[in-house]
Automatic annotation (TrEMBL):
Organism: Methylopila jiangsuensis
Name assigned to this protein: Divalent cation transporter
Pfam family, one: OEP
Cleavable signal peptide: 1-24
SUPFAM superfamilies per UniProt: Outer membrane efflux proteins (OEP)
Entries under Gene3D superfamilies matching the protein: Outer membrane efflux proteins (OEP) (1.20.1600.10)
Keywords assigned by UniProt, alphabetized: Signal
InterPro entries: MdtP/NodT-like, OMP_efflux
Keyword Signal: yes
Family: Belongs to the outer membrane factor (OMF) (TC 1.B.17) family.
GO molecular-function terms, A-Z: efflux transmembrane transporter activity
Length: 428
């Protein structure tokens, strides 16, 4: 289990770390001590997550229950004073009989072994629960990192748009001075630039929100990093759905039912063992004060199981064991739905990002270059120029949204399957 979890963390990190590819990555702040990478985020999230800390405590508590389950009942020491403080010949302590006895309860029916089996199964179940929690933490952190990286990329794209529109101002001024355009075009250009600045401000606020969300997951009250570092454009074709489901069936979400079944089977054995009465054996020494004589004594007590044979407890434990398969089937059905939704989201985002990158953006870039050069020559209007620039920016932002959706779905799938997904890289 630990190997699968480490493999998932490594795979997710490689998916977003800078890649040795030929295409240009989105502009981002240079790596520094204040630039957070995915591998750093995952390590810090695992170390800081309170759910994992609670799971560790639960495992330790289960270990304590196992230790306690193995102990034998304590012996019982008793003292009795008889025939004392009576009347006539038994006045005071003249005829007193004193008895000192030690007794020991002996459990029958395999009660101790049943307790040990229950406790051992509880440890296994707690460990599987921790493994499932760890996968969830890794998936949530990776998804939050992808969102932060996408928000950062949106900021970079809108900064490019604003800078590009700012560079149009001198060109607009020249056309007005040459009489090729009216002064109103400068106002239109400023409106477009200021509108882009508003979108940039919104994108920066969204990045700060994503940054704070990621900070909480890695254990920071306030963000300790200024930027996130990774390659959002690294994508690949998803594997087959059947292969993903085969992996998902081996994750802690389902394999934990093996420990649950063992635990409930042990609880049934424990309930059945309660029907077997225990015996208490005692041995002691009695002193007769009247004639100063002594005598040994022994005792044996066994409860008679006439009314309580723990029939209700046996029925309860048996039904609880029987419902394990139904619970597992329900969990597998829910897992299938989640894997299917994440898979379709991954495939849809992959197609959208790939087609936008291969078809839409190159055409929009070529159209904008043509309109920009033609505007300087008077062949296109300012409205056409602004529309071409907006179309290029919209295409780039759509690609970013698709890439964020891709990596979020990928993180979800890796969390559900417990392994790093090997994606085809031919489409990068």
């Amino acid at each position: 289990m630990s190997f699968r979890i480490r493999a998932f963390a490594l795979g997710a990190a490689l998916a977003l770390l800078p890649a040795l590819t030929t295409h240009a990555a989105p502009k981002a702040p240079p790596h520094s001590a204040r630039t957070l990478t995915l591998s750093q985020a995952l390590s810090r999230a695992v170390a800081a997550n309170p759910g994992l800390a609670a799971a560790d405590r639960e495992i330790a508590a289960a270990g304590g229950r196992r230790l306690q389950a193995g102990v034998f009942p304590n012996p019982e020491l008793s003292f009795e004073l008889d025939s004392a403080f009576g009347s006539k010949a038994r006045r005071g302590l003249k005829a007193a009989e004193t008895t000192l006895q030690i007794s020991q309860l002996f459990e029958l029916g395999g009660k101790r072994d049943a307790r040990l089996a229950v406790a051992a199964a509880e440890i296994d179940a707690a460990r599987w629960d921790r493994a499932a929690t760890r996968l969830q933490v890794l998936a949530e952190t990776t998804e939050a990192f992808a969102k932060a990286l996408g928000a950062q990329s949106r900021v970079a794209e809108l900064e490019d748009q604003v800078a590009d529109l700012d560079r149009l101002t001198p060109l607009l001024q020249k056309r007005v001075e040459a009489g090729a355009s009216s002064g109103a075009e400068i106002a239109r250009g400023r409106v477009a630039t200021e509108t882009a600045r508003v979108e940039l401000a919104k994108a920066r606020a969204a990045f700060q929100a994503a940054r704070r969300e990621l900070s909480v997951l890695i254990g920071d009250r306030t963000p300790s990093f200024a930027a996130v570092g990774g390659d959002l454009k690294r994508i690949g074709a998803p594997p087959s759905f059947d292969g993903l489901m085969a992996r998902a069936r081996r994750t802690p979400q389902l394999t934990r039912f093996t420990a649950v079944r063992a635990q409930r089977r042990a609880l049934l054995a424990q309930a059945q063992a309660k029907a077997v009465p225990d015996i208490t054996v005692g041995a002691g020494w009695r002193h007769y004060r009247e004639d100063r004589s002594n005598a040994a004594m022994a005792s044996l007590s066994v409860p008679l199981p006439l009314f309580d044979r723990n029939d209700g407890g046996v029925i309860e434990a048996g039904e609880t064991l029987a419902k394990t398969e139904a619970e597992r089937a329900a969990a597998e059905r829910a897992l299938t739905v989640m894997v299917g939704a994440a898979y379709e989201g991954l495939r849809g985002a992959y197609d959208e990002a790939r087609l936008t990158r291969a078809n839409v953006i190159p055409i929009a870039r070529e159209a904008y270059a043509e309109v920009r050069s033609g505007y300087a020559e008077g062949r296109y209007s300012l409205l056409e120029l602004l529309e071409a620039r907006a179309a290029l920016s919209d295409a780039s932002l759509k690609e970013i949204d698709a890439l964020v959706s891709f990596h979020a779905s990928l993180a979800s799938l890796e969390g559900l399957t417990g392994t790093a997904l090997v994606l085809s890289r031919r489409d990068q």
